[in-house]
Amino acid sequence: MYNAMLALGYAAESDFSGPIRLSGDVKGASVLVLGAGLAGMTAAYELQKAGYKVQILEYNERPGGRNWSLYGGDSYTEIGGVTQKVEFAKGLYFNPGPWRIPHVHRGILHYCKVLNVPLESFCQINYNAYVHSERAFGGKPRRFREVNADFNGHVAELLAKAASQEKLKDAVSPDEKAVLLDALRNWGVLDRNFQYRKSDDVSAVRGYDVSPNGGLRPLPVNSEPMPFKQLLDSRFWASIRQGQIIEHQSQVFQPVGGMGMIGKAFGNALSKIIKYNCQVTKIAQDGSGVSVSYMQRGDTSQQYTAKADWCVCTIPASVLSQIPLTTGAPLRNAINSLSYEAAFKVGLEFKRRFWEEDEAIYGGITYTDLPISNISYPSTGYHSAGGGVLLGGYIFGNQPRAFEFSALSARDQVKAALAQGQKIHPQYSREFKSGVGVSWHRVPWTLGCSGSWTEDNRKKNYDNMCAIDGRLVLAGEHCSRLPAWQEGAVLSALDAITRLHKRVVGRT
After folding, report:
1. Rounded to an integer, what distance in angstroms lies between the CA atom of residue 128 and that of residue 363?
2. Does 3.20.20.70 match the CATH number of domain 71-102+119-127+342-442?
């Protein structure tokens, strides 16, 4: 799975190596940036530092684009005019878009540091959270630690048995065999007979039925490992692998107060050059510059025009394909070829933090084969009075369940997430307070979550999507090999403006 993701550009390390330096005399050149998402604001921030005259046109009334958090008192209107009012208590929030920053994404972390955006730990893997399947163990969720320990233990026992029976003699030498058996005993918590069985040592890894306690309380009771066949049939092993993907390995971060804090910080730094509520209707260019027509959202009676020598366009291809654009056939074909991933997220507010109080789950993610796919617990505000907000479901990718959720009304999306989550947390029904759902195919400014490149389409159109076309260059996560990640947007912007700057300096 990881190799397939790597080939398609969905899993890779960032190649950010430090701040860029755009040296040379730009001689007053101007750049129009379309979009105040992270790609657009990264481009504008660095271009302005290099001496360019920069202006940003942004569709929304806020900066950040998909870098977005919803707080109590906010509202969100999707395609079709349906508006949801967020009723969360003060201080609570939900990230409809990106929700975590891997330690290997050094570009976005660099700008968090530059812009003084405080970060805190995001708990990706919590061994006390759950793994769940309706088809396994009677639909009862099992703790992540139980699944992880039992899978490792049973596999270690099988390997130890194979090694002891000389079935691995062509793969390991006699000296290596002794070391391998010692490693398997340690890794799989096997007994002296190389068996994975109920014991004090095993319970210390997977948990006890009755935990050690104090005073004259009952003695500890060891837990029984799950049968290997049931564990294999459950396919739980697919979920416990999540923490091994490099973006999910520690350390993972989140901005204090919500992911949208990065967009707000960028917006504050660029407040003098961003023009909000601008809906681009046409992009034209010739040998002397770029001319962009736009309307003020809510007022279609008048068209405005913005001009510049150059343009960095970060409008998602899903939207850009519908805007008249003066460009060559290679870029036009690339834009039209790119479909966008579906994604759905739902934020659920509860009256109390029952996952902490009742189940000792502090942050992390529960994985399930239900359509909601997972439940993420807040990695902040532990033991807070007054409740909290769970990510009650996150469905990503062009799969039927994502489109099925997207087809529901906002109210029914929340109801469906509650009904499914109830199978894991029975407290849902009595503790629920409010909720909000966001289907990215119904978000007006993106019409989808992220660029959905196939291997074949990348070969045909990716280079053309990123190439400078006359006086226009595109940037965004869709112009990167890290689609759906903020890092992809940042790296794409830095690459685009570096190439653009070389052309400007070379021409002037």
Report:
1. 9
2. no
